[in-house]
Amino acid sequence: MRYIAGSILIASMSATGTLYAYTSETEMSADQAQMLIKEFATTLQGELKGALKEGGPIGAVQVCKERAPAIAESLSEQSGWEIGRTSLKTRNAETNTPDAWETEVLKQFADRVAAGQSIKTMTYAEVVETDTGKAYRYMKAIPTGEICLACHGVEIDPKLAEAIDKAYPEDSARGYSAGELRGAFTLSKPL
Ligand code: HEC
User: Fold this and answer.
1) Per residue of the chain (191 residues), what is the pLDDT tens digit?
2) Please, is 37 exposed, middle or buried when counting C-beta atoms within 10 Å of its C-beta (0-12, 13-18, 19+)?
């Protein structure tokens, strides 16, 4: 429904001028970003739950390691967006370390959480200048749920901690409690 509404706005764009067109294009981009995040999150959560059931958290670490980047990559290829996850405390520092813009948004999210806003609906979008032109960037906060605590919580089973250490010697994504801000989905698309 909202997607259709976006298209109608774009259709009336030429009559109303650039400013209006710009607004509707960002609106449409936000809708696209939300749909992509939903698909990414649903696929990943589904695979995570399946893996936890089948092999417990130690087996599931490998699934997170291989499947999270693979799902992100295939969605990126299909959509023309860049899609990933990031955090101020990363497990996979190589792939998920925030850039300067993402760091600012993550800090802004933390401030908004401290001010009482809901993590579940927290997003931020901006059109930015890049070396190759304008890009639309979008982030959506990720809350820490109960299911996440086995691998990101305060008390991690020693055997599991060993497996995480082995796969991620630089891991700093631990010590979270349920309901805390864990990180964010981060998307961008050239305009
Ligand atoms: C089985 C262990 C496990 C569970 C359970 C788990 N994670 Fe992770 N998480 C990982 C691993 C491993 C990575 C690194 C993935 C990679 O290499 O990209 C990761 C990475 C992440 C990242 C990307 C940023 C970073 O730290 O590198 C976010 C965000 C994240 N997890 C959130 C969650 C949330 C939210 C939940 C609960 C819904 C959850 N995780 C449950 C193991 C787990």
Assistant:
1) 344 444 444 433 434 444 444 467 788 899 999 999 999 999 999 999 999 999 899 989 988 999 999 999 999 999 999 999 999 999 999 999 999 999 999 999 999 999 999 999 999 999 999 999 999 999 999 999 999 999 999 999 999 999 999 999 999 999 999 999 999 999 999 98
2) buried
Domain ranges of the chain: 41-190
Angle in degrees, CA 4, 187, 182, rounded to 5: 115
Host H or E run for residue 3 = helix 2-11
Q: Ligand 1 centroid to 64 CA: how many Å?
A: 6
Q: Is 75 in the pocket of ligand 1 (CB under 6 A)?
A: no
Atom of ligand 1 nearest to the CA of 150: 5
Q: Give the predicted TM-score (pTM) of the model.
A: 0.89
Q: Is 91 in the pocket of ligand 1 (CB under 6 A)?
A: yes
Ligand 1 pocket, residue 151 CB under 6 Å: yes
173 CB within 6 A, ligand 1: yes
Specify the CATH architecture of the domain 41-190.
2-Layer Sandwich (3.30)
Q: Which tokens hold the place of 73?
A: 């990559």
Ligand 1 touching residue 174 (CB < 6 A): no
Cβ of residue 87 lying under 6 Å from some atom of ligand 1: yes
- Residue ranges of the alpha helices (H) in 82-146? 93-96, 100-114
